Batch of 2 targets.
Target 1
Amino acid sequence: MNEQAGSRAQHSRRDDVADVLVIGAGPSGAVAARYLAASGFSVVALEQGHWPDANEFPGRRREYELVAQKRWHPNPNVRDLPRDYPVDTRNSDINPLMYAAVGGSTTLYAGHWTPFLPSDFRVRTLDGIADDWPFTYEELLPCLEEIEREVGVSGLPGNPAYPPQRAFPTPPLPIGKAGRKAVEGLDKLGWHWWPGTNAIPSMPHNGLNPCVRRGTCMTGCPEGAKSTVNITFWPHAIKSGARLITGARVREIEVDSRGLATGAIYIDENGRERRQRASVVILCANGIGTPRLLLLSRSKQFPDGLANRSGLVGRRLMMHPFSAVLGVFEDALDGWRGPFGQLVESFEFYETDPKRGFLRGAKWGAMPGGGPLGVTSFVGSQIFEADEGGTVEEVWGESLHKLVERRFNHCLVYGIIGEDLPEEGNRVVLDPELTDSDGIPAPRLIYKVSENSHAMLRFHVTRCTEAVEAAGAIETVVVHQVPDTGWHLLGTCRMGADPETSVVDPWGRAHDVANLHIFDGSTFPTSGGVNPTATIMSVALRQVQHMIAERRLQEAA
Amino acid sequence: MQPTEKDRLRFASLADRLLPQWRTMPAASTVHVHRDMLDLILRVRPDLLEDFFRGVRASGEGDPSEAINMLYRNDHAAFNAVNLVAVAAYYMTDAVRAIIGYPGQENAPYDPHETPAYLLDGTLERVVRRGSLYRPTPQG
């Protein structure tokens, strides 16, 4: 077990009662800890993973592409590391992707920085489906702009897909030859594009080095140039006195006779059970980990799981169905060069048009094709297969040589992220048999991609294929609804004003437990059609600012 | 588990069926996929060991083409392991990387203040001129 703490917390005892216990040291937990510690709260955070070591990231090593398919794969079931918990996905169309570490799953994210748009907060009002959020884009914007300064976002202001906002703290990254190729097609069609906005600074910023386009973002950045909260937030939180305990796997949130949270029981790295008491508990364990922990925290007072009077804990899971379109071009595109990272983004078909036969939309991000193993794979998973043939020599052999000659350094990949609408049948439950390495029940997913999502992805794949063909593609490959793409785990502890139809209130406080808060993406009423980290961090900031402002009114155990 | 010399030579013969000499591309055994690269891969991907050795050793000493096709038909896990080791080893060699023009993942510094071409040639301006795409927050 490792601890890092500021001078004040170093003198605290393990059985002290913290003002606030934060569970999970990813983006939302880091935001909470940093601002609370800076405001004088005593903060203890528990993280099941460890501090990531940039020297372990494989991006500088020859075997980078090979280990991306195992040790550094985003699917915990593929990695199968002791710090990961397994997930039963036999009844899920999409595999959830996550990483246990200080910094959480952003350790392996691509850094696409795409805040939710105004319509994403008013889905019911605008499109008559799903739900509105309890606040608007405009209300959240100040938090977003503050977060962007800390994160060191790179980008170009003025994107007409978004309302005007403050400029990004660092200039946009080069879009490279692959990005220019994507632009050729979009420009010919008169469709929207914008140089990619990324959580990857182009200049030194807040402890981050500038991106050097190594292109290994999704196995951890060995340059320290991808914005993750282990670099940008936790050092500040610890300096302000927060105590971060790693290798600590929480198995239960405890409550007292009044139904208030009193802290958590966790298993340390040596298998010892420990208890951390606190006046307030904040859950930041992602859209699967958070409902798992609430369901694990059953008691006489809460027989269906903690904070689950609505029965919605674990329900409405959204994971963003995802398709990929690969375009192959005659021109050399420096296809291994980063960022990876989106080079170019397009919101041309993001907003609802009912004539398309589905509601809501999707964002496209153009990315480079990767190294030679990348001609048949995407983020460590085989998806672009060679044509099947009768013998090994027909499928591989000269065919493989021809495939690499044709595609390597000559392709770009569009990732299409479609909005996932909430459905109560898509959910996280506890598995009756599967456990993690500490014997704690693992989550089981029950998730089906909806007809709306399938129709959406088919439409977008057709349009996206037109875009790469307009750019001069000599070959296109489409993969509809890629399974290993559940990066975005949202919606399983819905936020809302009504305790009968939501788990937490508009400020992230559990309706049923007055001193239990949830600040992660599980509270999202809807998912948007974009990568959610920007919005997760902004919402966490909004909630923690409110908690700090209302500290005198906070009920505590 | 370490490969014997016999394992190495058998693997090389199977790898040559997957990656034969073709135009300027050398055969797998020519770039010694069965030597240092094999050791490196088995070290960094221990999860492949069992399937890899089962595949190599089950293939016997007969015709490599028949052996690799038999593996492909009857033991997909073993075939996939042998295939992945061969292909990864091949494209990790300096010789093959030089031929296909892949320097490996490398730093490519740039000037972040350099004005991008899309701002100079009017392509981005056309996007801006088409106006906003977002639907504003409904009032009231």
Note: Residues 4-12 of chain A have pLDDT under 50 and may be disordered.
Target 2
Amino acid sequence: MLETAAGDFTWDSAASIAAAVAAGRVGATHIIEATLARIRERDPLLNSFTAVTERRALARARALDEARARGERLPPLAGVPFAVKNLFDVAGLPTLAGSKINRDLPPAARDAALIERLEAAGAILVGALNMGEYAYDFTGENIHDGPSRNPHDLDRMSGGSSGGSGSAVGGGLVPLALGSDTNGSIRVPSSLCGIFGLKPTYGRLTRARTFPFVTSLDHLGPFARTTRDLALAYDAMQGFDPDDPVCADRVAQPTVPHLDKGPDGLRVAVAAGYFKGKTAEAVAAVDSVASALGANRDIDIPQAERARSAAFIITASEGASLHLNRLRTRARDYDPAVRDRLIAGAITQASLVIKAQKFRRWYREQVLKLFEKVDAILAPATPCTAPLIGQQTFKLEDVELPVRANLGLYTQPISFIGLPVVAVPVPLAPLPIAVQIIAAPWREDVGLRIAHALEAQGVVAAPRPAL
Amino acid sequence: MKRKAGRKARSARAKRPRPVRTAAKTTPETSIDAFVAASAQALGLTLDPAWHDSIAFNLRLILRHAALVDEFALPDDAEPAPVFHA
């Protein structure tokens, strides 16, 4: 149901907006005008957008309203505003990927494939979102565009690297956004901003016409404030695409029809050892989710710490390889924190990287065996709630660790082998934190089904900020 | 005479290898520093001296992670996963 007759759609779900537009209770043009006004009003606080595609959005909205007036049946996401991390190509805009350097690129000639798929489902792109430079980031800070801010405390990090996506959805600017996740860049902002995020199986969603970071680890996926919205967007984006060499040639497996099945019959365990929370909030979040699911079994993900290290090395090296020529010619135009990590990656010996790749295959085989015994595994998404913007370190069990490299402590060992994960926000006070629901490859439906059940119980929810 | 002796002495110093002095000062820290400089040069990367400490810090971090992976025994026939499939 739409929130008010006057049209404050700030906290409405994508599903409710689409239903209202399809039924003619509100026009898509009205939704988009209200969204644009909200972005103008609130984004100066959140700093989540780097471009607003106003003219294009209004044109699409009018076209939808005209189609409805002609009696045409509208698609499932009709009139739903969405925005994308600015590493997605948007026709007419340079694809920034959070950088200064890419501002010199010619405007993209065509939208990213996932934008095309969401728009084919009726959603309407309203802009591009702030992000950590070249996605090598967990903080949401950006030296060129300023930090995207946490909607629950504007002095705190949104998380990264899809910081603008977390901030825009968590702050009520849009009900749906897209981001990328190489080592945790969907799950970390979901956790810090208190929203739902889906990192699908590696190879499930096409990455065509997006700016890469670490191709053997790069995933794309949606952010939303409800599980149903995640599922609707995910279903609309599935399908093979020959334009992405690693996009799997698999039949689309819709998840929306399975959402209401509940968790009965699913075997859920809690990740032990390395994943045991080291802060009160991480422990409380996992405990509350596990308790609601009756998950009283622990399971050990073997060599998870080593897996995280291997992901770290591959990221540094593969990321550096992508940037080598730019590092030669434009090193001074990078964020120094990103540049120095990339240069260190560039000079890392190949023998170490290949060892990490060998370990990766071994680890994948061990972890896949676990899914013979369980259907889903729970783990914290981040070690803590949102740190302050500019904070360099945090303490975990009295050990001082750099924030930038360690917010993804619990996400890296999972994306390392491409497992699908739904990040579900536990609305702790004063700040939310998320739990990862980790499933076997291609079983996004399992994670979404569990997330939906937890949401129905009120255990997980996107808390509305007092902006 | 003095000048000549001085020249001779300088010349002798220039020709004399200094391995002992260098070896005595070589530590993991200095070898990382030297590695950063040499590797960057080999790759055609021009480094501002002000960046050096941060790059070396990041390289040490990578090497600490690499050590954790490297110490894990894998069989000789372990296959890498350069093209990764989930």
Note: The radius of gyration of chain B is 22 Å.
